[in-house]
């Protein structure tokens, strides 16, 4: 049994390779990276299953990610096992005609949110096969003290939108090795959820931040009011943020308090998305101060701010906005059946299945997120006042927080 630290390190490296391949658009590199990742996950699950072979305590198994399955879930996984053992897996899957239960998607979404802060922050829901979702685009109060006349009806109708959540598809491949078939439905569920969660998370984060709107979500960096060319939304104009001085930082944040259709809204907290390297090299120096006792205090912002690191942003770029103002809906839909795939025949001793998840996402309004240029973000300066009440006047000097 390999050590947990070794497994975690290997998983991190493989996910970085997978994310890089997805962003590059290199399909060969993507297939290879995903194959290596799936093989690593399968090996870990098989090792853990054998280690816990004699364990029957449901709580112990649950702590390792092994759930108690519903009858529908158990039937679904038994169908995968039967199809994988079949000489004709395509026909076996046709005979099953069993869609992936929505409860599996619910659990995958929970798993994703638990391990990816960005996906936990947005309004991320299982659409449960819905074709369209109603979106209150402007936080409009749907109650009125007066009779609901025609003018008010038109005003409300203009601020409520329908999102077609079947517009884009996320295709997730599930390689199933023969060793996995002997573990039973509960461990197969553990493996499938791990594969789906990580494969979907990488695609979802990039779509939520950078999605063009063409067969994919509309990203936080896109201008909803811009000129759309062949379904592609343009980038927002970047706002330069050179320091986290209270006046400059709050000046950047202030427009978020304006509703897009007039009026104001409270902004109790903002979310700052940055590249992991920029967080270390730019944001930390700009938000670190030295206390009187000589210790350093990190993430000191002049406004309540939640920092989230994401590899979906390139160096020098950032996004600041309202944490709950991005809607992302994902679901298996009524056609969420598994298909057998011939595309990855280089995988030895493994059969590969494909499930297509429908989804769509977009900012709830065009004023919820601001695209930032932080390439010139400066370290914090700490003003120190020394007062001598005896005879000398007050001396004021500025010292760097890093000193």
TrEMBL record:
Indicate where this protein resides in the cell.
Answer: Virion
Listed transmembrane segments: none
Q: Where is the Phage capsid-like C-terminal domain?
A: 100-229
Record-linked Pfam families: Phage_capsid
Which named protein is this? Phage major capsid protein
User: Which species is the source of this protein?
Assistant: Solibaculum intestinale
């Amino acid at each position: 049994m390999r050590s947990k630290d070794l497994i975690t390190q290997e998983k991190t490296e493989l996910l970085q390779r997978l994310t890089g391949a997805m962003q590059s658009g290199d399909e060969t590199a993507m297939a290879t990276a995903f194959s290596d990742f799936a093989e690593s996950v399968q090996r870990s699950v098989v090792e853990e299953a054998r280690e816990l072979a004699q364990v029957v305590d449901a709580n112990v198994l649950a702590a390792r990610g092994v759930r108690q399955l519903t009858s529908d879930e158990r039937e679904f996984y038994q169908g995968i096992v039967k199809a994988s053992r079949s000489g004709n897996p395509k026909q076996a899957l046709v005979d099953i005609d069993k869609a992936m239960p929505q409860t599996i998607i619910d659990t995958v979404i929970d798993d994703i949110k638990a391990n990816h802060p960005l996906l936990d922050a947005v309004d991320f829901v299982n659409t449960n096969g819905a074709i369209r979702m109603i979106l209150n685009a402007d936080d409009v109060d749907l109650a009125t003290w007066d009779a609901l006349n025609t003018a008010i009806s038109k005003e409300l109708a203009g601020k409520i939108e329908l999102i077609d959540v079947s517009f884009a598809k996320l295709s997730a491949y599930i390689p199933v090795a023969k060793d996995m078939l002997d573990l039973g439905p509960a461990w197969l569920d553990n493996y499938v959820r791990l594969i789906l969660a990580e494969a979907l998370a990488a695609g979802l984060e990039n779509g939520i931040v950078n999605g063009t709107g063409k067969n994919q979500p509309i990203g936080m960096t896109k201008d909803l009011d811009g000129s759309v060319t062949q379904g592609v939304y343009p980038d927002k104009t970047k706002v330069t943020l050179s320091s986290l001085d209270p006046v400059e930082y709050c000046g950047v944040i202030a427009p978020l308090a304006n509703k897009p259709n007039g009026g104001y809204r409270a902004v109790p907290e903002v979310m700052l998305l940055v590249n992991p390297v920029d967080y270390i090299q730019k944001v930390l120096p700009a938000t670190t101060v030295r206390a009187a006792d000589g210790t350093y205090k990190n993430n000191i912002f002049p406004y309540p701010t939640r920092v989230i690191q994401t590899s979906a942003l390139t160096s020098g770029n950032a996004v600041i906005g309202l944490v709950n103002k991005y809607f992302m809906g994902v679901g298996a839909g009524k056609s969420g059946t598994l298909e057998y795939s011939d595309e990855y025949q280089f995988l030895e001793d493994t059969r590969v299945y494909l499930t297509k998840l429908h989804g769509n996402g977009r900012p709830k309004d065009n004023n919820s997120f601001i695209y930032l240029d932080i390439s010139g973000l400066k370290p914090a300066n700490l003003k120190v006042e020394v007062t001598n009440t005896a005879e000398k006047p007050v001396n004021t000097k500025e010292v760097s927080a890093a000193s």
